[in-house]
Amino acid sequence: MRGPSVDNIFCFIVSADCYELRDSGPCEALMPRFYWNQITKGCEVFNYGGCQGTRNNFKTMKVCLQKCHCKQPILIGECRARLISYGWNDETQKCELFFYRGCGGNTNRFFTKERCRAKCSQK
Length: 123
Known about the structure:
By secondary structure, this protein is an alpha+beta fold. The protein has helices at residues 6-19, 61-68, 113-120; strands spanning 31-37, 42-48, 83-89, 94-100. The strands form 2 sheets. Strands 1-2 form a two-stranded antiparallel sheet. The protein has a two-stranded antiparallel ribbon with strand order 3-4. The longest helix has 14 residues, at 6-19. It is elongated. One of its GO terms (molecular function) is serine-type endopeptidase inhibitor activity. One of its GO terms (cellular component) is extracellular space.
């Protein structure tokens, strides 16, 4: 019997980071960082003190979105295209089919259901 793949373990660890509360830590530096806000479903800036805190602490907006993209809502985007896509629904814990309109949207968008599951499923 084989254990879980490394990809699935990595995805679980990434998800745990995004669920932790924002914590500036006890130190007093003012380092701009980004954290995943579970209420607004987006990455937001905060001032990190420079020590301790939580793992929900990313150096750039890009890294925050890469790590927490499965937590974003499914957005169809603007424009008029109808591209078959899949997005992770964090409430149902499933990948859902939607038609991406070709511009706008966010990074919770995959071209195949398999890729969506591989990146976002915690199983």
